[in-house]
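Format notes (please read before filing issues)

Several people have asked whether sequences and structure tokens are stored in separate files. They are not. Every record keeps both together, in the order shown below: the sequence lines, then the token lines. Line labels are part of the format and must not be stripped during preprocessing.
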Amino acid sequence: MAERPLSHIRVLDFGQYLAGPLVGMMLADMGAEVIRIDPPGGPRFKSPAADMLSRGKSSLVLDLKSAEGRATALDLAARADVVIENFRPGVMKRLGLGPDDLRAVNPGIVSLSMPGFASTDTDLAGLAAWEAVIAARTGQFTDMGLNRRLMGINPSFTPLALASAYGAAFGAMSVLFALAARGRNGGDHIEVPLASALLEGLIYNCEQIEAYPDRYKSPREVELDRRAAEGLPMNLPFAALSEFLDPFYRTYPCADGRGFYVVSCSIAGHPQRALRALGLGELADELPDFSAYLDRKDWPADWSARNYPVGAGDRARVSSAMKAAFLTRPSQEWEAIFGAAKSPATAQRFTKEWLADPHALASGLVLEVDDPRHGKMRQMGNVAWIADDAMAATKLPGPVLDDARARLDAILSEPVRPAPGASGAGGWLDGVKVLDLTNV
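Then the structure lines:
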């Protein structure tokens, strides 16, 4: 098999449900050998989604409550590079597989723990932190939703598994950083609490800045402040919400009734491109357009098209013109026009439509895998792509339960991993130089 970026790495994936298995999937996508450690009876999460998260992995059933199962797990850890788990804090230690146990048999092991709440959180560490529990505790169902707050429907449940998604992304990156620094630092233990990852990923909805100028607040934030200051109820009807969205960051109905999502704010030239794509060139030329990095006293207007949001004095006329223009064509025509104009926007799609979308398939954002349980199966593409990686779009299906058993003896006959040559305490990226050309 062709060499991949992580072809030399072996991973033991003890994860269940989403966060841990998703990290394992991303590492497998980059070529790592990932062995999924299953309890007797198989994974707890029995779903086609679980089979997608296990693509490219093999399966080994171990009863970690038995001495034999724990001994086999430690023997495997001595011949592995990474261990992933997302149990509650202390579970792996009680099983005899905690960070110290792993380092005792393999000083170079990189272990990743993804509990719901941090092991140092004396109040919540022991909680059975399902996705919805984390979301409820961190405000995902309440404070993070400006629409929900304005409509007075808090709390409002969403099934989006954001904590696991953000946690997996941070976890996978941390593992890669630790592996790259292993020659200097030796092995490492990493903890990525999913609650912390959720707050980090949604910081733009969580942070509160004292004396934040109204000109930088979204229209919804201004309306929330107004209603709170005047003691008014939060009872805005859904139909009225659109008028509290920025014209360049909202959904518009088109001639075919489909919504068209525009995200053309905050970057120089993007609002003008959107307006010109809509045939509103004169309006585009009228927008105040200057660097908001100027001293406030030197601003020629009270807002700039390079910054979010559109000023209160111009918002209604820009919004009205855009709404009328979008109703003149169907969404697919607008998608082609906005694409040619290089203005960020897209027609809204149902999941089934996205899975069959020619762009999604041609770009590799959606891949087709031949799964033994489900047949031809459309799945998410790679999280990261490597240039000239001919194997990137080739995905093996999820494993048959315990299929790694046949080669267990061969794995355990390998020599244990040698101890790394150093055990420093430097940062993962010490010595790396970065040229930052970003301006957003």
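For reference, the curators noted about this record: The first strand starts at residue 10 and ends at 13. The chain has a mean pLDDT of 92.
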